[in-house]
Amino acid sequence: NGGSVTLDATNALVVTAVGNISANGGGSGTNSQNTAGNGGPVALRTDNTLTQQGNITASAGIRNGSGISGAAGTITLEGDGNDNIFTISDTVQMKGAGPAATLNGLGGNDTLKVLGLTGDTWQVNAANSGLLTYNSTSGVLALSFNSVENLTGGSGNDTFTFTSADSSLSGLIDGAGGTDSLNISALSSGRTVQIGDVVNSNFNVNNLESITANAAVTNILIGSNGPNNWSITAANAGSVNTTSFSGFNVLTGGDEKDVFQLHDSVNFAGSINGAGGTDDTVIGGNRANTWTI
Question: pTM for this structure?
Answer without folding.
Answer: 0.87
